UniProtKB/TrEMBL annotation:
Enzyme class of the recorded protein, top EC level: oxidoreductase
Family statement drawn from the similarity comment of this UniProt entry: Belongs to the NADH dehydrogenase family.
SUPFAM superfamilies for this protein: FAD/NAD(P)-binding domain
Protein name from the UniProt record: Type II NADH:quinone oxidoreductase
Length: 354
């Protein structure tokens, strides 16, 4: 019996399972899914858990129910690519084929004190912990969110909906919000923040963090709580693998999403070096192609000379419960329509997978 091992129950591996179960997986194969937690976390919604507008059960869902899946829950302590063994605590799991989809962690850019004195929304447990600290803040407390990408924007807006009494500061390295995208998008988001009393601090450079204090361009600013949303990197165990790793810590792959020196090993999602910013949408698109490659190989069919280019349609973002923004196929959409679009995409994902 051969064993296909999936490391991490994120969007990429969920998509792979949806394509190969129940009929595409060969009869002589089983799947072993290894994850810390016994559920799939809906990471694009973790900011709502941290802000207190969604409960824990709303941002997770069960893994596929199949007698062909062996679930192993625990912390992965070693990935031995030569011996084809995964260590999970004191247990060992052998594999014939492996998909690494272990996701990411915060990247602190060597800022002193950032890791020690800021909170995170990168995992469900960290988002839950961040919520507990936010919920204990007194009236008028100052919350700083470092990083004005999609996660920072959505956290700031959702936190304003949850806690109208807090002073919220969003620190942005650029001159304007989402400066790589059309100015119309930036203006809409900034207008929403101004109307709802969220202070955007442009041209920020947070170069030090201390308990209750950040240094922005070396100028100290007092804050009661700080959340870090200023960048991500693959988890440490992947960054330390003895294979080719990019400067950003991601695994360099061939066109079939395989590690070139270990072609029975695939990497999906945030750990993969790809020409797009990491996202759930990208992980799913990559999962589609990995499943296609696997099925061809199981059928002893040749792989295509060139894989199709992965195309990302854009992104969707929320501004509280009723407003949103989107950049889809080079077009900007704002307001209630964007909010409905995002809600629809999330509902479809839950419905399809649940």
């Amino acid at each position: 019996m051969k064993n296909l091992v999936l490391l991490g129950g994120g969007y990429g591996n969920m998509r792979i399972m949806s394509h190969i179960l129940p009929s595409a997986l060969p009869e002589n194969y089983s799947i072993t899914l290894i994850d810390r937690m016994p559920y799939h976390g809906l990471k694009p919604e973790f900011y709502e858990l941290a802000a207190g507008t969604k409960s824990d059960k709303d941002v997770r869902m069960g893994f596929p129910d199949s007698d062909r899946i062996n679930n192993v829950f625990g912390e992965i302590t070693d990935i031995n690519l030569d011996d084809q063994i995964i260590s999970v605590g004191n247990s060992k799991v052998d594999y014939d084929e492996l998909v690494i989809g272990l996701g990411c962690e915060d990247k602190y850019h060597n800022v002193p004190g950032a890791e020690e004195y800021t909170h995170s929304i990168q995992t469900l447990s960290k988002s839950r912990e961040t919520f507990h600290h936010i919920s204990e803040l007194p009236n008028g407390a100052k919350v700083g969110i470092v990083g004005a990408g999609l996660s920072g924007i959505e956290l700031a807006s959702e936190l304003r909906e949850s806690r109208s009494d807090l002073q919220i500061y969003l620190y942005d390295r650029g001159e304007r919000i989402l400066c790589r995208f059309p100015e119309k998008l930036s203006q809409y988001i900034e207008k929403w923040f101004k109307k709802h009393d969220v202070t955007v601090v442009p041209n920020s450079d947070i170069n030090r963090v201390e308990p209750g204090r950040i240094y922005n361009n070396d100028v100290p600013e007092e804050l009661d709580l700080i959340v870090w949303t200023a960048g991500i990197q693959p988890v440490e165990i992947v960054r330390n693998l003895p294979i080719d790793i990019s400067k950003g810590g991601r695994v360099i792959l061939n066109q079939y999403h395989q590690v070139p020196t270990y072609k029975n090993v695939y990497v999906v999602g945030d750990c993969a070096e790809l020409p797009h910013a990491p996202s759930a949408q990208l992980a799913e698109a990559q999962g589609d192609q990995i499943a296609d490659v696997m099925k061809l190989q199981w059928q002893n069919k040749p792989l295509p000379e060139k894989m199709p280019e992965i195309k990302i349609q854009g992104f969707l973002g929320s501004l509280g419960d009723k407003k949103g923004f989107a950049y889809i196929m080079d077009r900007t959409v704002t307001g209630r329509l964007a909010s409905i679009l995002k809600s629809g995409v999330l509902w479809m994902y839950k419905y399809h997978n649940g």
